[in-house]
Amino acid sequence: MAAENSSVTEFILTGLTNQPGFQIPLFFLFLGFYVVTVVGNLGLITLIGLNSHLHTPMYFFLYNLSFIDFCYSSVITPKMLMSFVSKKNSISYAGCMTQLFFFLFFVVSESFILTVMAYDRYVAICNPLLYRVTMSPQACLLLLLGVYGMGFAGATAHTACMMGVTFCANNVVNHYMCDILPLLEHACSSTYVNQLVVFVVVGIDIGMPTVTIFISYSLILSSILHIHSMEGKSKAFSTCSSHIIAVSLFFGSGAFMYLKPSSILPMNQGKVSSLFYTTVVPMLNPLIYSLRNKDVKVALKKTLNTYSFS
C-alpha cells in the first residue's frame, strides 16, 4: 500500500551491477557469504546456549550480537540475491518501508550491543572484584533493553520521516536494498527534515557508541599497562582484541557511508561501503569471536565430542 502523499506503489532495485556477465558469479558469491553468516551466527547461538560455562554476561551479549547479525543479514541478503536472478527486482512501497525499518532497527541495535560489550570488558578488567555485582542478570537485562530500545527509536524516527516524503514517478532505486540515502534521491518534496534526522540520529548512533567504546578501551589499556605479569597482559589483550576488530569493521564502514556528503561519496561507492557492513561484517563476526576465543573453541570441541559419542 502506497503512502497517501506518494504516487509510487513499488520500487525497482537495480542491485549491485547491471553487467549480465557478473550476475551469476555474484549470486553464488553472496549466497556463499549468506550461508556462512547463517551457519556461523546460528552455530554460535547454539554453542552458547548448550554450554553452561558460557552463560556469563560476556557471552550473553555475544549471543545477542549473533542474533542481531543473523536477523539484519536476513533482512537484506535474500532480496539482494533476487536481483541477480530476476529481470525486474521490484519491492512494494510497504515492503520497502518494512525492510528499511527492520534494517535500521538491527543495525542501530548492533552499534549499541557493541558498546555494551565494551563496557562489559571495562568492568571485567578494571573492576574485577565488582564484576558480578555490576554485571548482574538484572543489569544485563536492562542494558539489553536499552540496546533494543535505541534500535527501535532510531528505526522509528527514520522510517516515519521517510513515510512523509513524496516520491517522484521514477521509482528505479540505484541500490540493492531500501536504504535512506538512495530513497531520498527520488524525493519530490523537501528532504531537509530527513537529512537533519540522518545527521542527528546517525550522529548519536555512531557518535555515542564510539565515544563510550573509546573511553572504555582507553581505561582498559591503562589498566593493562599496570599489570606486571606478561601472562596477565596477554590474556587481557586477547580478551579485547576480537571486540576491537569487530568494532573497527562495523563503525568504520558505517561512518564512511552515512557521515560523508553524497557529493563526496557517489552512490555506486556507497553501495560497496554498505555491502561491507550489511553482508561482510555479519559473516566475519562469528569467525572473529570463535577463532580468537579459547572458551568458544573449548565449547565447540566439547559439544562435537558429546554428539560424536552419542
Automatic annotation (TrEMBL):
Limits of the G-protein coupled receptors family 1 profile domain: 40-289
Residue stretches spanning the membrane: 26-48, 60-80, 100-119, 140-167, 196-224, 236-259, 274-291
Localization annotation: Cell membrane
Family statement: Belongs to the G-protein coupled receptor 1 family.
Natural source organism: Callithrix jacchus
Entry protein name: Olfactory receptor
GO molecular function, a single term: G protein-coupled receptor activity
SUPFAM superfamilies attached to this UniProt entry: Family A G protein-coupled receptor-like (SSF81321)
Main location: membrane
Membrane topology: Multi-pass membrane protein
Keyword Transmembrane attached: yes
Keywords: Cell membrane, G-protein coupled receptor, Glycoprotein, Membrane, Olfaction, Receptor, Sensory transduction, Transducer, Transmembrane, Transmembrane helix
Pfam families: 7tm_4
InterPro entries: GPCR_Rhodpsn, GPCR_Rhodpsn_7TM, Olfact_rcpt
Domain of life: Eukaryota
GO cellular component labels: plasma membrane
